[in-house]
Amino acid sequence: MNTNINFIKLVLINLIMLFSFQSVANTEDKGDGILWAGCGITKKAFMTELAKAYTAKTGIEVTLTGGGATKGIRNAAKGNIDIGGACRATLPGHKDERAAHQIPVAWDALVVVVNKDNPVNSVTFKELQKIYLGQITNWKQLGGDNAPIELYVRKGKHSGVGRTLRELVFANYEQNFKAKFAVKSSGPLEKGILKNLYGIGTTGISSAKRRALKILKLEDKEPTYENIKKGEYLLYRPLYLVTKGPKSEEKVKKFISFALSREGKAIIRKAGTVPYADAMSLVMKQLQQYKRARDSGIFSE
After folding, report:
1. Which residue has the higher pLDDT, 38 or 292?
2. Which residues contact residue 171 at a Cβ distance below 8 angstroms, ignoring those fewer than 6 apart?
3. Are 186 and 112 in contact (CB under 8 A)?
4. Which domains does the chain have, with CATH numbers?
5. How many of the other CB atoms lie within 10 Å of CB of 184?
6. Dist. CA 155–CA 141, nearest whole Å
7. The predicted structure's pLDDT at residue 90
8. Are 152 and 201 in contact (CB under 8 A)?
9. What is residue 25's predicted lDDT score, i.e. its pLDDT?
């Protein structure tokens, strides 16, 4: 996988889309409503608040549904929905995602979560790798109880969290994980760990912080707003809105323009999420994330 070339191409496309949508006039439109579908983390990070504010401002109803990043990308590309939400980049060359145009709107962090009564408070980058590879299997290896680690992962390899985790932690989109539980979305993963003292998994900070979960420090850094914005927390990723690009209806372009506007960014900040344009330095810092994963040297099939 030539990560550097793919990354540079993605950055250029993202910036073109970002600036092109910012140029759209944000005028009122009393036309049909807007249907959004996609990953729950993107919905919780900013879409719920943006949708309410946009409806209050324009009178246009924005309907939000779920379904995950893949559904958001592919249904937006096909025109089955107006806008998709995604916490991963499109799959290069995939026939169902080629027509999707992604606009980066905010930054999210991947966080490691455990039950609130678990005594472990932190994990290192290499420990995280070894947990997913089945090389660390007991909590006492992390300073916790003498009990088996019960790892929760997402089914398949194309989910927003699953694909980004493989990219940022293993530099391998096809990396296999050794887990006890495989679930269909981040919601069941988080709910399972809520009830399981010895469960552990990775999810998005925008979702995790809304549940009574313990978020572990990673390399002694917490995923705070400022740490994410400065790139001091290791695992961060863009959150996207997805459209058909130039073929999108005017109502879609106007909503995207609103999301990228000064008003939209203020709403995103108030929701506790970092707007994409507020932390452009993270774009190039992502190359350091990939290098860290590649240089770790503990991969397995």
Report:
1. 38
2. 1, 3, 290, 293, 294, 299
3. no
4. 3-107+237-288 (3.40.190.10), 109-232 (3.40.190.10)
5. 12
6. 26
7. 94
8. yes
9. 36
* Alpha-helical segments (H) within the chain: 3-22, 40-42, 48-58, 69-78, 125-132, 160-165, 186-195, 205-208, 225-230, 250-260, 262-270, 281-294
3-state helix, strand, coil in the chain (%, to 5): 45, 20, 35
Angle at Cα 132 formed by Cα 131 and Cα 136, nearest 5°? 25
Nearest to 292 by CA among 171, 185, 146, 208: 171
Give the CA dihedral 19, 32, 68, 88, nearest 10 degrees: -10
Structure tokens belonging to residue 38: 């996609």
Cα 199 from Cα 197, distance rounded (Å): 6
Q: Give ∠ CA 117-121-124 in degrees, rounded to 5.
A: 140
Res. 44: pLDDT tops 80 = yes
What CA–CA distance (Å, rounded) separates 254 from 276?
Answer: 18
Q: What is the DSSP letter of 171?
A: S
